[in-house]
Amino acid sequence: MSNRVLIPLDMDEPPALPPDAVQHSLAGAAMGTTWSVHALAPRGVARETIAAAVEAQLARVIREMSTWEPDSLISRFNRAEAGSWHALPEAFHAVLDAALTMAVDSDGAFDPTVGPLVNLWGFGPATDSVPSHAVPDQAALTQARARCGWRRIGLDRATRSALQPGGAYLDFSGIAKGYAVDLVAQALREAGCASWLAEIGGELSGMGLKADGQPWWVALERPPLDGGAALLAALHGMAIATSGDYRRHFEQDGRRYAHTIDPRSGSPVRHDLASVTVLHPSCMVADALATALTVLGEEEGMAFARRRNVAALFIGGAASGFRERMTPAMAAMLE
Q: Quick one: residue 208, left, alpha or beta (phi over 0 = left, psi -120 to 50 = alpha)?
């Protein structure tokens, strides 16, 4: 099959590259996954400067938002006493604010307080009290659900502070990786880069042109064994995020349990939606939308995305043969 091409309708003309532009390719590991950056910068911008800028932002996200780090800000908030208010740094506040906004908009399909359920089902930081990848009993499930609920979190935007109501456990795994991509893109711009493609664990953001004058072409992620025609997106001022339930799951008694938890039921999603990919100028928003649409499922998620003019690709039906559906906003990008 031939490739299909997606070009954002409102994409500005990319600026010309500096005549002395040099490409730098960097890669590493962080946030439990890998990252890579391809950046074009004037000759006077050192590779070490770019690397330091990228690594500083990745360290910032881990230091503030990783539940896998016991001394991170989010871990300390999750252990804090009931009724305590906590001043938040700019990045943490931005992510919590966006997460709560998505929770309101999706009526709880996206919920940053889902952490106790993620941990209970064995998809969070390992503890001695939580079995790895096992179906919990009803009593444990009821107890974990009692600690969840985005409405329990108080956020004072004027003072940039958050309320720990008691027992709340924030989990930014459905949004923080996208935000980290946005931070890296911002750092590349501030370091003097003229063009780049930034990627963390499959979430991407691009700007400008490559050295050959072409845009940063990126293939949208598809589930394993899906033989559908590739979709290539031109990334200039755009980001891509994918939520795929083929990435992490376990099986018990002949049933498959995916890592995406529906906060409304307290259990892994049960539909056959394999993946959702979202294109958006903000990778943080794309990440949160992909998570919310995966929880909502194909029909409800498609209706949600259509009402909000979200560019999204739904791939489902793994058991009976993959099927693909695009929202009108994404279909309009097809060249």
A: left
Give the other-Cβ count within 10 Å of 101's Cβ: 14
Q: Note whether 18 and 192 are within 8 A (CB).
A: no
Residue 312 belongs to a domain: yes
CA distance 86 to 156: 10
Domain range spanning residue 326?
Answer: 4-32+202-331
pLDDT tens sequence across 88-127: 999 999 999 999 999 999 999 999 999 999 888 778 785 5
Cβ distance 35 to 200 under 8 Å?
yes
- Edge-to-edge strands of the sheet including 231-235? 4-6, 231-235, 216-219
> CA-CA distance, 97 to 132, in Å (whole number)?
31
Token pair in block for residue 101 = 């906004």
Domain with residue 13: its CATH number is 3.10.520.10
Cα–Cα dist 69/92, whole Å: 15
Give the integer Cα–Cα distance in Å for 201 and 179: 12
Q: Is residue 220 part of a domain?
A: yes
Q: What is the DSSP string of 145-179?
A: HHT--GGG-EEETTTTEEEE-SS-----TTTHHHH
Separation CA 150–CA 110 (nearest Å): 9
d(CA 197, CA 17): 14
Domain presence at residue 78: no
pLDDT of res. 249: 54
Print the SS3 string covering 201-212: CCEEEEECECCC
Q: What is the pTM of this model?
A: 0.92
Q: Give strand pairing partners of 199.
A: 36, 204
Structural domain count, the chain? 1
**Residue 96 falls inside a structural domain:** no
What distances in angstroms separate CA 54 from CA 190, 221, 303, one per listed residue?
Answer: 11, 24, 37
* The pair of three-digit structure tokens given for residue 266, joined into one six-digit string: 């307290």
> What is the dihedral sign for C-alpha 137, 138, 139, 141?
positive
pLDDT in tens, 186-206: 999 999 999 999 999 999 999
